[in-house]
Fold:
Amino acid sequence: GQQVMQIPQYQHVQEGEDFTTYCNSSTTLSNIQWYKQRPGGHPVFLIQLVKSGEVKKQKRLTFQFGEAKKNSSLHITATQTTDVGTYFCAGRWTYKYIFGTGTRLKVLA
Amino acid sequence: DADVTQTPRNRITKTGKRIMLECSQTKGHDRMYWYRQDPGLGLRLIYYSFDVKDINKGEISDGYSVSRQAQAKFSLSLESAIPNQTALYFCATSVRGAGGELFFGEGSRLTVL
Structure:
C-alpha cells in the first residue's frame, strides 16, 4: 500500500537556526499537503502543492514538491519559538490522504 | 464554537467495552474522515466517507466500524475495545473535489485499560 515516510522524526534547534523536514512517498502523488500540529492541539493546514517542481513560500516557510512528485520538503528559515510543533506532510492518492509520520520540532530560546 | 466537534474529548474504558466516538460538523462539507494518532506513527486513516451512502475503509479499519448518520455526523465505533486501541482520534472534513484541505476536530483521547 501507499506509504509516506518523513525524516527526521525529531529536531531540536536553537532559535534563529534553520530547519528542514523531508517527506518521501513510495508512489507518485496527485498532490501533497503540509500541516502543523501545536503541542496538545490538532493538525492545521499550511499549504498544498500540486505541480511537479512547485515551490511556494509563506513568510519564513518554503515548501517544495519534487520533479517526480514523490518527495517534498518544508524549510523554515530562522526558527522562532512559535514554530514549535509537529509538521506533517500528507500525500494524496485518488481520493484519500495518507499522512507522513511527522517531524517534531523543538526550538530552544 | 468549533466547526468540527468531537465527543467525548477524553474517555477511559475497559477491555471489551463498546465505545462510540462522535463527530459533527457545521462546515457543510461532504467528506468526513476518522484518523488515529499514535506517537511516532503519525496520523493513520481508519475510515472515510464522501457522502451518507459512501463509506470506505482506510489503512487500519480492523476493529473499527463507522456510521454516517447525516451529512454533518460521522461516528466511529469500537465494538470491543482492546488496549492497543488506546490513541488520540481525530475527525476531519473536507470539501468535495480534488485537493480539499482537511479541517480537523479537537481530538478524542481514548484509553483502554
Observations:
- The longest strand of chain B covers residues 42-51.
- Residues 36 and 45 of chain B are 7 Å apart (CA to CA).
